[in-house]
Automatic annotation (TrEMBL):
<dbReference type="InterPro" id="IPR052980">
    <property type="entry name" value="Crinkler_effector"/>
</dbReference>
<protein>
    <submittedName>
        <fullName>Uncharacterized protein</fullName>
    </submittedName>
</protein>
């Protein structure tokens, strides 16, 4: 049985944390994400009545900045070159966290193969989500609940705004402000590199 298939066992334990099925809303978001597309004017629009991460406060539409596309190209190229740890940083307010949602959409458009799972860790005060290739979503209060995935090189781990694990086998993307206390040690690990996301330009601001 594939690794992701076993992950839906509700209440699985790892490091004292339990993973359980996520809400119907976020499962619907993930399940219908393949139906989402980018309009001619550059907006990623979700299927009707679905919201990013299942939360109406996140909206159902985002502007796909040109740097998002370029960074995704770099991510895929770096993975192919053996890089397994990537820091994406830049000034506050330029859409780094939203880029993480775009990245999840990119993965959902792919066919079979890596990644088997995406673990999204947005900080100690937020729920950690695990998006499985079979279309279901798990949640937990700690990343430790998904150790079986983060120890798998065919998992993508997206960490937003706080320190990531240094030795996870998963391909790890840290999205963060320039605060060196968050990313400096991580970027010194073997197989790590840094990319910078530029500020919005006037054309992008006018498009929104």
């Amino acid at each position: 049985m594939a690794a992701w298939a076993t992950g839906m066992q509700a209440g699985m334990q790892a490091g004292g944390a339990a993973a359980v099925p996520a809400s119907a809303a976020i499962n619907e978001f993930w399940g219908k994400l393949r139906d989402a597309g980018i309009s001619e004017d550059g907006f990623l629009q979700l299927a009707p009545d679905t919201y990013f991460l299942g939360d109406p406060l996140n909206g159902s539409c985002l502007f796909v900045r040109e740097p998002y596309r370029k960074v995704v190209e770099q991510v895929l190229h770096l993975w192919s070159q053996g890089i397994t740890k990537l820091v994406i940083t830049g000034s506050p307010g330029i859409g780094k966290s939203v880029f993480g949602w775009y990245l999840i959409w990119v993965v959902r458009q792919q066919g079979d193969g890596c990644p088997n799972a995406i673990v999204l860790d947005q900080g100690p005060d937020d729920v950690v989500f695990c998006f499985l290739r079979d279309g279901r979503v798990l949640k937990a209060t700690s990343r430790a609940a998904f150790e079986q995935y983060t120890s798998d090189a065919c998992t993508w781990l997206i960490v937003d705004g706080h320190k990531p694990p240094l030795k996870a086998a998963a391909k790890t993307i840290l999205i963060t402000s320039p605060d060196r206390t968050i990313w400096w040690q991580f970027h010194k690990e073997r197989g790590a590199t840094v990319r910078y996301m530029p500020a919005w330009n006037m054309a992008e601001l006018e498009a929104c």
